[in-house]
Amino acid sequence: MNNIIELVKSGVTGLTLNIKIEDLVEFADHFISEAKEALLSPMVKQSQEKLLPKAEVLEKFNICPTTLWNWERKKYIEPVKIGRKVYYRQADVECLIIERGKR
What is the model's pTM? Predict the structure, then answer.
């Protein structure tokens, strides 16, 4: 089974293989577990981030919606849309506060 993974990782192409079903299942399980490890941690972290509503961000910076829209367009801050509502990650807002304070 390890030989199959090594072949895939080496980038060898044009091979024809005869594989036992058990080895194929083990091969699939290996890649599924690798994908879970790679994706699960960032997904959990992102779901735990605090989101601030648009009105609160406008109030924090004392700006109008047009300014916030311009910041989004210039990639200063990225909106998170949930349904029809717009939120912003608290970490992004805090970084923007720090950046604006340096000017």
Answer: 0.53
